[in-house]
Amino acid sequence: MSKLPVISGRECVSALQRADFRVRRQKGSHIVMQKDDPYRVVSIPNHKALKPGTLRGIINDAGLSVDEFRELL
């Protein structure tokens, strides 16, 4: 299992955009992203540094492995 990087919410959004996710909406400090094929919705807190458990949950919800996510950064 690869070690998770320490990144901000904005960096996470940029990485997911490279994986064909698009920003659907933002309410407060949370950015909701969507991918159509296969359909997935991911909520990302726009914080300066995402906690490891939060980032792992985002990666799992996006249907990616940690290694695949690291390549998108």
Description:
The model has no long low-confidence stretch (mean pLDDT 94). The two termini are 17 Å apart. Helix content is 37%, strand content 25%. It is built from 3 helices and 3 strands; from the N terminus they run αβββαα. The chain has a single domain, classed as 2-Layer Sandwich (Metal Transport, Frataxin, Chain A), CATH 3.30.920.30. It has a 3-stranded antiparallel β-sheet with strand order 1-2-3, covered by helices on one side. By secondary structure, it is of the alpha+beta class. Strand 2 and strand 3 form a beta hairpin. The longest helix is centred in the first third of the chain and has 10 residues.
Pick out its properties:
alpha+beta, 73 residues, Metal Transport, Frataxin, Chain A, single chain, three-stranded antiparallel β-sheet, 3 helices, globular
What's the end-to-end separation, in Å?
17 Å
Share of residues in strands: 15-25%
Number of strands: 3
The chain-level structural class is: alpha+beta
The number of helical segments is 3
Widest sheet, order of strands: 1-2-3
> Quick one: CATH superfamily?
Hypothetical protein
Rg, rounded, reads: 11 Å
User: For this structure, what is the CATH class?
Assistant: Alpha Beta
What sort of overall outline do the alpha carbons produce when their principal axes are compared? globular
Mean pLDDT: 94
